[in-house]
Amino acid sequence: MNFIKKIKILLHWREKQKPHIDLNTEFYSQLRPFSIPLISTVLLMLIGTLGYMQIDDFSLSDAIYQTGITFTTVGFGEISKISEGGRIFTITLIIIGFIIFTFSIGILVDVLNKGELQRILKERNMLYKIARLKNHFIICYHNEYTIQLSKQFRENHIPFVVIDPNDNFEEEAKKYNYPYYINDEPHTGQALLKSFLSSAKGVITLSNNIADNIAQIASTRLYEKEIGRRKSYYIITTARSLSDIEKLKKLGANSVISPTKLISQRMTALSLRPDMENFLEEFLYKKDTALNMIELPVPKHSWLRFKKLKETHLEDIPEVKIVGFRDNKNAFIPIPKGDTFITSDSRLLVIGTNTGIRTIKRVVRKKQQPEELKYV
After folding, report:
1. Domains defined for the chain, CATH in brackets
2. pTM, rounded to two decimals
3. Exposure winner among 56, 109, 192, 303, fewest CB in 10 A?
């Protein structure tokens, strides 16, 4: 068994992920009305076969064949001579077969007209697609923010699932090209399972009603504890007032964005520092920029602890620049000097190329100072 697992790992094979809710029960319940016609057909074939064998002494294969062509009224005729009693029996089979066929068509039309079967099949197919996602974001509630956010996510190839409870949401999802969507109340346990939250990176809740956002945050954090997730979900939400921002952060939101505050800040920046705002527009909001920026935490096991910044020689790493420092008391220092003291739980604001940022991440997370920085 271990050998087979190693082969699968070597060939990059992995088992197909299955959704937590597959809707099989709902699907089979929709097929239940077809059980009566199916049972009737089987019984009629059995009765017809036994009847032909008894009345006209047919062999088993001939009896089954004669019953089949009679029941389906294909009109192939008699495969061998049938007595008067056999013909009466044949007419009876044709009439009963026609009744069963008509009854079956009526059930089929009724089930299709309700549309529930098609809905379940579509949703079931969607759930299997969502189950293949990993490190995706779950966006709760469809509105203008969701439309713009989904465009940015698609451009940057960030996987996401949109959840909304409105009845016409499927039409809206198709209109705005949401690749994965669920029509359900976002904060319910069923919706969390359908969106495959266990493999998600985070949740973005964008309801205009703060109560909905609070319910979503609470549900996500409870689910996180329930499954024993090691890394917390990153939760982003919106708020209209400053008091709401504080409430949502206390309840478990990592980031709370106030559209009013954000607009005023950007307008102030445009008024006072238009060049800086143009730089941010190019740097932060475009996917193909050559530069990146991260706030890099210093782990408790890092070799950087209790050293001055100039002693670490991090500035000598190519293609990166440390432009800010946040200490363990959350005080921020722009363009830190060489004598800035690094402690655990402090953070470095780093700007650079993707290659340079990957290098400095690797260096900061090491327990021992890398050899290449010892002799700089």
Report:
1. 26-116 (1.10.287.70), 133-257 (3.40.50.720), 290-374 (3.30.70.1450)
2. 0.65
3. 109
